[in-house]
Specification:
Number of strands: 0
Distance between the termini: 40 Å
Organism: Gossypium stocksii
Membrane topology: Multi-pass membrane protein
Number of helices: 20
Order of helices and strands: HHHHHHHHHHHHHHHHHHHH
Subcellular location: Endoplasmic reticulum membrane
Mean pLDDT: 82
EC number: 2.7.1.108
Helix content: over 70%
Radius of gyration: 24 Å
Structural class: mainly alpha
Main location: endoplasmic reticulum
């Protein structure tokens, strides 16, 4: 039975459509093709999500969550488009070069290609399932025609846009091929994620993660290819300069993440080789095998992070000194402020984790409220640093992400002697959105606070943009949960737990925090260009999304809030 538009529309979809409409209404005429492509992507993703409601079992999503396909498909392209709007303002004021604007244009189309490729893949899967169930079902044919129409229109608009930023037809063809590779890589990666980590994420969450990873590592690959071409081929023949000038901290974070990716692949390969040649030795005790495996793990990790990743940074991205030496020089350039901040962070983490761990083991307090205390901890840690030491906070976020990734690898692979200990400790802070296979909550909170800060580097004419994650998660989401849990009576839906009182408290608390933060930023030298009516729309929209979505709100709300603050 085909759902009517009214019955198919729910709160989450309505908020996402308003979010997209708000961004599209702020576009200059020069970005009209981008507006058309995002509109097509929104309609296509809504269509796929409605069709997927009846066959979620095909994808083994996280139990209790909706598919979230539309939210996952439009979030990253809309973030890129909002950033493109901001850079268009900068270019009109001659604050940036044309190359930076074209680079962001390619990032937008790459993100859109990733999401469109996954939507095509999901459509094909559902069409095949419907056709196998009933070959004479006419709706499956109509679905295929509609999907094909959206894809063709999207491709035409993409070609027109790329032609306007390319000087030759060869450049346009090469960029289209590059976008096609992004779409193919996204499809393969989301297949791998859903198969390797079943019931760990919804389709929308997996789609956001997939498109983000492909976009980020695709940028690294493009930089590497561009550098190799310049080294091996005459620079005059290399007509495409991919990428922009990166800060030292951005280069280090990229290098560390690339090193961890290489390390994971190398370690698995070495272990497989070892087991193939020496795995038949049954006389060796289990403990000795674990110790040998652990030694291989830490030796490979050390070699990758000290030799391989820094070599890539120095050769490909022209980093002048060894990154570890640069980090020491950077920290000691302002030793009193930065070392004092490190001591403050470590003391706060130690006291909070020790206290909350005991509470989680012995108290009957609800896990969701306990986790919100960590949101408040994030505010107390990150807010002072973002105001007075933003560059150092950038570096600290990268270090924290690397530590989290290494600990999660140790936990998943049960690396002796820390694997089981880390698993027991992390399990004390999990909820229904985590699983034994993969624990993602701490990653989503860290990245939710860090991504707006990282993406606001360079030109920024909206002072609240870097605070998007801290405000929406640390203050808004926390107050909504606490007030809704204690005082909430009126629920947004009959089946949901979110209350109107909680949502109102979250929106009011963020607005109150902004009213305090803006004068404080003005006193430190920021030029205030943030208007209150667009700010009210941004806060209200992100608050309503928190109320309606069943997705991992730590991942989506900061990005939505960031996009709306860019306008």
């Amino acid at each position: 039975m085909v759902a009517s538009p009214l019955t198919a529309m729910n709160g989450e979809r309505a908020v996402v459509l308003f979010f997209v409409f708000r961004v599209l209404s702020s576009l200059p005429l020069s970005l009209l093709p981008h507006a058309l492509s995002l509109s097509l992507l929104s309609v296509f993703s809504l269509f796929v999500e409605i069709r997927a409601d009846g066959c979620l079992s095909l994808f083994k999503p996280r139990p209790g969550a909706s598919s979230g396909i539309m939210l996952g498909a439009v979030t990253l392209p809309t973030v890129m488009l909002s950033k493109l709007i901001q850079l268009s303002r900068a270019f009109s004021l001659q604050q940036i070069e044309i190359g930076e604007l074209e680079h962001m244009t390619m990032e937008f189309w790459a993100a859109s290609a990733c999401c469109c490729g996954v939507l095509i893949f999901l459509s094909i899967l559902m069409w095949c399932a419907a056709y196998n169930k009933n070959p004479h079902f006419s709706r499956s044919v109509w679905d295929a025609k509609f999907s094909l129409s959206c894809v063709i229109l999207f491709s035409v608009v993409c070609c027109i846009s790329l032609a306007t930023i390319s000087h030759t037809g060869f450049n346009t063809a090469l960029k289209l091929l590059w976008l096609l590779c992004h779409g193919f890589a996204a499809v393969k990666l989301i297949q791998h994620l859903l198969h390797t980590f079943p019931c760990c994420a919804s389709i929308g969450e997996a789609l956001l993660l997939t498109s983000g990873l492909v976009l980020y590592f695709g940028d690294m690959l493009a930089c590497t290819i561009s550098k190799v071409c310049r080294l091996l081929v005459s620079p005059e023949l290399v007509t495409i300069r991919y990428g922009i000038k990166r800060s030292e901290i951005g280069i280090i974070i990229q290098g560390v993440l690339l090193g961890l990716l290489i390390f994971s692949a190398v370690f698995k390969f070495v272990i497989h080789l070892w087991e193939y040649f020496w795995g038949a030795d049954n006389s060796e005790s289990r403990q000795n095998k674990e110790i040998r495996r652990s030694l291989i793990f830490f030796a490979s990790l050390g070699f990758t992070m000290i030799v391989v990743a820094p070599s890539w940074m120095m050769i490909v991205l022209d980093f002048d000194v060894h990154p570890i030496l640069w980090i020491f020089q950077f920290v000691l350039s302002e030793p009193l402020k930065r070392l004092s901040l490190c001591i403050y962070w470590l003391g706060l983490i130690y006291a909070s984790v020790l206290r909350f761990y005991k509470i989680s083991k012995n108290s009957k307090i609800e896990r969701i409220l306990l986790r919100k205390y960590y949101h408040l901890l994030a505010v107390s840690m990150f807010l002072p640093a973002l105001i007075y030491q933003p560059k150092f906070l950038d570096l600290a976020f990268g270090a924290a992400l690397a530590v989290f990734l290494v600990l999660e690898i140790i936990r998943v692979w049960r690396i002796w002697p820390l694997g089981q200990l880390v698993h027991q400790f992390m399990s004390a802070f999990t909820d229904h959105r985590d699983s034994d296979i993969l624990i993602v909550s701490h990653f989503s909170l860290l990245l939710g606070c860090a991504l707006p800060i990282w993406m606001s580097s360079g030109f920024n004419d909206r002072p609240l943009i870097p605070f998007a994650g801290i405000l929406s998660l640390g203050i808004g989401d926390t107050m909504a949960s606490m007030v809704g849990h204690k005082y909430g009576v009126l629920r947004w839906s009959k089946t949901g737990k979110k209350t109107i009182e909680g949502t109102a408290a979250g929106i009011v608390s963020v607005l109150a925090a902004c009213s305090v933060l803006l004068p404080l930023l003005a006193s430190t030298g920021y030029i205030l260009t943030q208007h209150w009516f667009p700010l009210l729309i941004a806060v209200t929209t992100s608050g309503l999304l928190e109320a309606y979505t069943a997705q991992l709100d730590n991942a989506f709300i900061p990005l939505v809030f960031y996009s709306l603050l860019c306008l």
